[in-house]
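User: Please predict the structure of the protein below. I'd like the answer in structure-token form so I can feed it into my own downstream comparison script.

Assistant: Understood. Taking the following sequence of 354 residues as input:
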Amino acid sequence: MTPARRDATTGNPDLDEALRAVLDLANPTDDRDLLLDILVSATRLATDDTDRLDLKITAATLREMRAAFRAFAPYRDVPKITMFGSARTRHDDPLYAQARDLAHQLASHGWMVVTGAGPGIMQAGMEGAGRASSFGVSIRLPFETNANAIISGDPKLVSMKYFFTRKLMLMKESAGFVALPGGFGTLDETFELLTLQQTGKAVPAPIVLLDVPGGTYWHAMMHLLRTEVETMGLISPGDLDLVRVTDDATEATRSLLGFFRNYHSIRWVGSRLVLRLKAPPTDAEVQELNDRFGDLCTDAGRIERTTALPDEVATDDVVDLPRLVMPFDIFRTSELHRLIGGLNALPSAPPPIV
């Protein structure tokens, strides 16, 4: 069980009481402990002799994150794919058409497409998805001050001053990701995605690297990673299985949506990993999973069927779905994708989405 959270404190009982009074005036209905924590942190900044520039960064970050949370909130239950790629890609570039076609396919299956709201690949994605299925998280730059015409003025557009807050919102809200060839920004976003998946700092999600037929951009990057980075032992064997490289938009769609063919979500309950599925596996399938993936368990543990665990019931966390539970080896987090692929390939799994 997760230990009960203790209320944050400024260390001054009178000040703590004043902050609680502020919360009473705001009258929040939920998560009062976290809201108090935010107020306490802000108050401590006032007593830490914090530099004015640091305060400006903090204020802008909190203000922009609040605006982004509000913009995304009405679409919380709509699945989203984030698309990364170069702002410099021209309208007549085959990459532009590739991005547009992929976004159109995703939107036709009920998914929203999130981009950085700029020109190039970002605009192509929004063209394909259409304004109603597009979400924009723009960055304010001296040479890129306005969002593209497709999303400009839409309430589903938010603007950020800092790259780190922008990347948070581009990644936090989506269940899958696709990157097309781009410059430093695209590579930065792609490698951050890989880092989050490799380290388990984000829930498992499909990542597709999409090029045009005959394109060498992603193949060249993967060659470097395999022959240099992996060979030097700087990443583990299997880490590169976190991504799918393709030059076909339809295959990219199958890979992104197929990730959720049977797999639904995960949750840690203590040291146990719970995998929620869309269809219950048979006894024979559970045995097959243990034969193939039992090495991902610690202490000679096993993959077992289960109903919702007490912690899940307490929070009403999709309790109606079938589940598997296992003592997962946290040092093999990147191999979760391999296990999820096995779950999606079970004969009991629902039919392919695409």
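That's the full token string. The chain has three domains: 13-73, 74-258, 263-344.
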